[in-house]
Amino acid sequence: MKKKRTFKNIFENALFLPLYVLVRHLPRKAALWLGAGFGRLLGRFMSSKRRIATNNMAKAFPELSEAELRQRINAMFVHIGKSVMEMLRLDLFRKTDLGDIFHVKGLENLQQAYDCNRGVIVLSGHVGFWEVGTFLFPMLGFPFDFVGKRMKNPLADRFITRLRESAGGRCIDSKSGARKVLKSLNEKRGVAVLIDQHRSSREGVAVPFFNRPAMTTPIISRLAMKYQIPVVPVFSYRTADDNYDVEIQPMFFLQDEPESSVEENTALLTSIIEEAIRKDETQWLWLHRRWR
């Protein structure tokens, strides 16, 4: 098994490195044009993933016709392709891009949460350009970390981690769990946690998500309730001209009271993510097997 993984890593690296070099030498608009084409190819040849995405969206939005579903799934794959290109260029963004490419609304909400001096939990999901916080908030002067899953390919993982940390944020391995997240919060840092992916029954709790039960990590609820950490929802949407609207919503606290359970608060957080997805359903990762 280890030998198979090694050969697979070599093959993946042979594809990844030339793409990485090419994308970083192209102008941003050309890279995004390439990404759109890459996304269309993914949509055409990843038939099993396309079926999963179509089935998921059909159940979440039963009012959509087959033609409407097809159009939205096509748009999702284009969005994914463009996001891959942006990911490979993360460290090329500069502060001057904050007004030109990234339009931030509600920055005062994040500042208010930091002023509580307890650390900040940033709630988000795989909506729009979800990597935005890894460089945007450190650039704006906010100490910031983010929870992410390490890639199986060590070379690709090193590249992506370096890109994510290029602006001064720190990547927390999701396997470290609450311990390292709490450490960052104790250092009065912000921590972004994406809670819209499946967790096993051992790790998660079942909460409604698009009218279906979905196993969800309760890490935010438990930490926010126990230590009264402010929670700030943040979502970044791609616009028609390939800029981004970054929406920072007002902070709130989760009450640690007998009538407020971890499950109820996790359901509340999940409903916020669902509402964000409904603003533009083409910008969520529907090909993930969220419901199992």
UniProtKB/TrEMBL annotation:
<keyword id="KW-0012">Acyltransferase</keyword>
<dbReference type="GO" id="GO:0005886">
    <property type="term" value="C:plasma membrane"/>
</dbReference>
<keyword id="KW-0808">Transferase</keyword>
<keyword id="KW-0472">Membrane</keyword>
<keyword id="KW-0997">Cell inner membrane</keyword>
<keyword id="KW-1003">Cell membrane</keyword>
<dbReference type="InterPro" id="IPR004960">
    <property type="entry name" value="LipA_acyltrans"/>
</dbReference>
<dbReference type="GO" id="GO:0016746">
    <property type="term" value="F:acyltransferase activity"/>
</dbReference>
<dbReference type="Pfam" id="PF03279">
    <property type="entry name" value="Lip_A_acyltrans"/>
</dbReference>
<protein>
    <recommendedName>
        <fullName>Lipid A biosynthesis acyltransferase</fullName>
    </recommendedName>
</protein>
<dbReference type="GO" id="GO:0009247">
    <property type="term" value="P:glycolipid biosynthetic process"/>
</dbReference>
